[in-house]
Write a structure and sequence with these properties.
The protein is mostly helical. It folds into 2 domains: about 230 residues, no CATH class; about 30 residues. It is built from 10 helices and no strands. Helix 4 packs antiparallel against helix 8. The chain is globular. The termini are far apart.
């Protein structure tokens, strides 16, 4: 088991760095927005695919879904449930202009990663002594939440009023293309490793790792939400993070001095 942990350390470090970069990576330049407008629906398809492939919370959730599935029929069933769930809210919310706070919805999505890993570890029976909820129903329901997150991302893009539905469909198709590509890699990895003796300890380490990754992402998103309500405002880098805290403290102190002075004059 120790050898499995040692072999996985570099992978965990890379994932941690990537998740940090994603959590602080909100916002889009004007040049990027213009390139999207000029690229048309193919550009939305490309953005959908790359967003899924770089959306570590979505990928971790999908990885949790398929982790112990061995039959093709079951893989298709559960992935289809997730796809229908996130496609429904992605299309409906975007088409109707329904928006939620970027940080809050991503925080809930992070907790969905914890949920799927907790279920994989038999946590409901082992720790809570209760029957686990229907997995197919839960994956569909959590897919609806993931769709809201995807819709929030899509609505940050410059959408065309005349081509709104095609923009949404193109983005959604891109999401599914990215999901299939990531799924293929995951299935190959698990199929090859499932026969090895190290798979059993690897499975426990991986699912506990999913829980910690989900909690980490949750805290990062809540940290972002505590700073701003508009995701585009949260654009400073990790290196400049402490400086932003200093500016916030200075602004808060200036406001207190202003209020104190006003009260003394009264």
């Amino acid at each position: 088991m120790l050898s499995v942990i040692k072999q996985s350390r570099w992978l965990l470090a890379v994932v941690a760095v990537l998740m940090v970069s994603q959590a602080f990576g909100h916002g889009m330049s004007e040049a990027e927005k213009q390139s999207i407008v000029e690229g048309g629906n193919l550009r939305y398809l490309w953005i959908g695919a790359t967003h899924m492939l770089s959306g570590y919370d979505h990928l971790l959730f999908v990885f949790g879904i398929i982790f112990f599935l061995t039959r093709f029929k079951d893989i298709v069933k559960y992935i289809t449930a997730f796809t229908l769930g996130h496609s429904a809210t992605l299309i409906f919310a975007t088409f109707n202009g329904i928006q939620v706070n970027y940080f809050l919805i991503d925080a809930v999505i992070a907790l969905s990663v914890c949920y799927i890993a907790f279920a994989n570890l038999g946590g409901f029976k082992k720790y809570l002594d209760i029957k686990p909820p229907n997995m197919l129903l839960m994956i569909t329901s959590l897919g609806l939440i993931h769709g809201l997150g995807l819709s929030t991302r899509l609505q940050q893009l410059p959408l065309s009023e005349d081509q709104l539905l095609m923009n949404i469909i193109s983005f959604n198709v891109g999401i599914e293309v990215g999901q299939i590509m990531a799924l293929a890699v995951m299935l190959l990895l698990l199929a090859g490793w499932r026969k090895a003796e190290s798979f059993k300890p690897f499975s426990r380490i991986s699912n506990y790792g999913l829980i910690f990754a989900g909690l980490f992402l949750f805290m990062m998103q809540m940290h972002g939400y505590s700073h701003v309500t508009d995701p585009d405002e949260f654009g400073f880098s990790v290196d400049n993070h402490i400086h932003e805290h200093i500016k916030m403290d200075e602004a808060r102190n200036a406001e207190i001095i202003k209020e104190t002075t006003h009260d003394s004059l009264d």
